[in-house]
Amino acid sequence: MPGTRARRSDAEVVAAVRAAVVEELAEVGLGRLTMDGIGQRAGIAKTSLYRRWDSPQAILLDALQAGFPQEQPTPAPTDDLRSDLIEALRLMIAWLTTPVARATGAILAERARYPELAEAVYTQVFEPKGGRFTGTVLRHYAAAGRIDPDRLTPVVLDIGEALVLKYTLDSGELPDEQTLADIVDQAVLPAADRPH
Amino acid sequence: MPGTRARRSDAEVVAAVRAAVVEELAEVGLGRLTMDGIGQRAGIAKTSLYRRWDSPQAILLDALQAGFPQEQPTPAPTDDLRSDLIEALRLMIAWLTTPVARATGAILAERARYPELAEAVYTQVFEPKGGRFTGTVLRHYAAAGRIDPDRLTPVVLDIGEALVLKYTLDSGELPDEQTLADIVDQAVLPAADRPH
């Protein structure tokens, strides 16, 4: 009954809908995501949902975008490339433990069936936040003249993320601090920062 | 009826059983793999299966082991580290297109439910063949004094494989020749072979 509970703010409604779409995805799968299901789980009328989003997939992308972290290079003058790279990988690991990351993984695993949605994860979620963890940091130090911008190829921008993912797939666990430092010292820095 | 078809050699029987277990896995999933199902698909009595293997999982591991390639460093005196690394990644890509690789991926994706089987993939399939594509090659050149063995950490041995996997996950396609060369030139060699 309307009025039986306190009216939620816009921000609360949006947060509830974003949480609902991620839970709904985990429960019913991509193929059965509906405005009805999401609305019911969030306690919101379908007509209200349509005021802001035009499809279940739009809600899902909005939730993934909102839940994806933004890495920040340390502001000068405390510049520290190595620490900033390790911190960027820490951010990735923190994200990997969230329901939003599992939802992202579920979409990419079904890329063959939903190619446009998978593509949208890259263009609307990953790329606006820098494309790759370590990417924002590396480009910042290249712009500052600290590393050679020519070294920042797609392969080099991908090294940190690739090794974290591979470690996670192989071990079933997230890399610890020492492994993050090893990835930065033994793979990212030699490729991005070796003498030239 | 016995005798209605030509008797197969031992090697033919083994090949048929290995192919059958991979097809059966793709069709019914890990949880419903049985000696009956495999025997039926291979056209072999269950009692004959038990003569060689003691479980469906043993058959599966045998098939994955038989289908996993073995990388080879070029024999001296045509030593060429860069070419051998690229060739090792080509082997990985050729393997990734096989039904055996998809079966391996299916097991690792269900690691949480079948931890012992996933562990056995590493100890019985990957490790006997060198643990990582590029690993055999890198260790060969370290033993020959061409690169510093101290550089061959777990992270460095994983760089090539991690970047191939990441590229494949991101693009839904296998890396082409240029990408393999970039991975070797921009990531593996700087980490394994930079001046010291």
From TrEMBL, chains A, B:
PROSITE patterns: HTH_TETR_2. Coiled coil: none annotated. Residues 11-71 form the HTH tetR-type domain. It comes from the Bacteria. One of its GO terms (molecular function) is DNA-binding transcription factor activity. Gene3D superfamilies: Homeodomain-like, Tetracycline Repressor, domain 2. Keywords: DNA-binding, Transcription, Transcription regulation. Pfam families: TetR_C_11 (PF16859), TetR_N (PF00440). Residues 34-53 bind DNA. This is TetR/AcrR family transcriptional regulator. It comes from Nocardia speluncae. The lineage of its organism: Bacteria, Bacillati, Actinomycetota, Actinomycetes, Mycobacteriales.
